[in-house]
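User: Second chain of the day. Same drill as before.
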Amino acid sequence: MSTGITMLGDLFDVRQRGRVQGFTASVWATAAIVGPTIGGIITQALSWRWTFYVNLPIGLLAIALLFTLHDREEHKGGSIDWLGAATFAAGAALLLLGVNDTYPLLTIPASVLLEVDEVIR
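Assistant: Same format as last time:
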């Protein structure tokens, strides 16, 4: 949720941001009310198995919109830091291994070293 709001903050200027975030919040509120209601109606009228078919028309609509909507891109220059991305991925993988009790005395310090190196660079 916080990532989505942060993305909206990056994509829209200050004048549009409030309107877009309000629209996003209203979609969440509507979904929280309509979703369980439709699910309850379907399970009472038919069976719980039919709730999985609700996603079919929504998915088909999403696929149709995928081919009709076009995004405008602005290239601001710059390039991807491939070394930094690889270092971050390796550090995150080592941290996950260490937390899951796979050689934690080796993987967690190695993860910290990789992430510290990434911050320093």
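The helical segments are 2-11, 14-45, 55-68, 82-99, 104-120.

User: Great, on to the next one.
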